[in-house]
Amino acid sequence: MLAIRDADRVRTLTLARPDALNAFNEALYDAITVALHDAAADPSVAVVVLTGAGRAFSAGTDLLELGERVTNPDFVPGEHGFLGLIDALAAFDKPLILAINGLGLGIGMTIIGYADLVFMADDARLKCPFTSLGVAPEAASSYLIPRLVGRQNAAWALLSSEWISAREAHEMGLVWRLCAPGDLQETAHSHATRLARLPISSLRAVKKTMTEPLARQIAEARERENRCFADLMGGPANSEALTAFAEGRQSDFTALPDGA
């Protein structure tokens, strides 16, 4: 589910649910949350690289499990879950590098807001699918993505639920470097290793000075998003989206009541 490898003071975390396109279920949310906490506390780790196994970086939240969560009153959530992962990302005080090896949806894209450097395969794609799922943004993406790409690029990404190509992501400023798929891991790890040779205390200080001024705005954005998400989850549009996904068909929102 999560592969962990250490080399040269770089810890690589590889999402390893390739058959599910590395979608986050509760167990994976918990595993990556614990891994980030452990990496932050481990004095032998200077830099973390996060990537995916197979043809996806991450397909976001596991929609089959999300559907069960909405409909099953006996559903047992994980210890940390989605919110615990975002807490861990917001608090992570060492350099975090993403190597986006394939498609990234939902948290597979919004996690970019918490990364320090992002490398992306030139055949990979990104999507914020929130409106197509009848829900709201997540992970402070309504604040962090406009900071990265500007209001109109962010508005299109968050409103449209359309795919964003690697070239578009690079032009917007979502990612730092594009790589041929076969060069992605080597390029990301080369940069990670160069950072890892430097003093961890200085790396932490640089990150703190860059991220600390944003903490209040991130927390406020998360609160707004969480309220909207809770209001919409299980509602008419979200129910139609999850039912359509389970049935393998396109969602049809045109007949929903009250403009939902």
UniProtKB/TrEMBL annotation:
Keyword tags: Isomerase, Peroxisome
Compartments, as annotated in UniProt: Peroxisome
Cross-referenced CDD domains: crotonase-like
Keyword Isomerase attributed: yes
GO MF assignments: delta(3)-delta(2)-enoyl-CoA isomerase activity
Record carries keyword Isomerase: yes
Domain of life: Bacteria
SUPFAM superfamilies: ClpP/crotonase (SSF52096)
PANTHER family (alphabetical): ENOYL-COA DELTA ISOMERASE 2, PTHR43684
Protein name: Crotonase
Species this protein is from: Dietzia lutea
Upper taxonomic lineage: Bacteria, Bacillati, Actinomycetota, Actinomycetes, Mycobacteriales
